[in-house]
What does this fold into?
Amino acid sequence: MQEGFARLWRGTNAALALAVPTVGIYLPCYDIFRNWIEQFTTCNAPNLTPYGPLVAGSLARSLACITCSPIELARTRMQAYKEFRNGAKPPGMWKTLLGVLSAHKSANNHQNLQSYRIMWMGVGAQLARDVPFSAICWSTLEPIRRRLLALVGEEGNVSSILGANFSAGFVAGSLAAAATCPLDVAKTRRQIETDLSRALKMTTRQTLVEMWRDGGPSGLFTGVGPRVGRAGPSVGIVVSFYEVVKYVLHQRHINS
It folds into this structure.
């Protein structure tokens, strides 16, 4: 019973280790890319300016995914861990990554730099999931956020910024999560594959075809409810607090 209860939080340390660098790379890079794209398109191609958030979100998410992919691999494998022995704790994040790396080296009987690409196993599927997610999310979030903030006007404060960004993030995150659920399932399948040589050869397209063959539409959208239930509030919380911190720092800079 105790193990079953603790299982609900397995991978939490890896999730936290993933969240901090991911957000630290993702949101600042999104702001930088969006501002640059909007400035460039406004001067050179005004009709393309509305697509700035879509492109900026895709670029920023790609950079964050590639950088943090080994931690994502560890988190996914920790949450899928099923081998229990009485009195034995499931492996932590670093032990999980070392276990993946050691198994690959043993199977191939050599230790070279190419062996380390196993740490990025499933990164293609992760990019195939996260880039469309970010494109859908930001292209939905920005118009909603700007409309809500326009209702507040120039008298906006911390609470109005928090509310507008959380509402926009919740709606955008939920829609993006539902639309990209099949890609999330494909990413998970690839990262928990026990046959490492097969995992390196698998493609996202092949995995999606297998999922359709095994379970049809319900197989593609396995876990869509929990994914949407997590993504909506998660995007809302992260974006709203990020924007509040930006607002507070900006106000402090003005008043100093």
Notes: The domain at 2-255 is CATH 1.50.40.10 (Mitochondrial carrier fold).
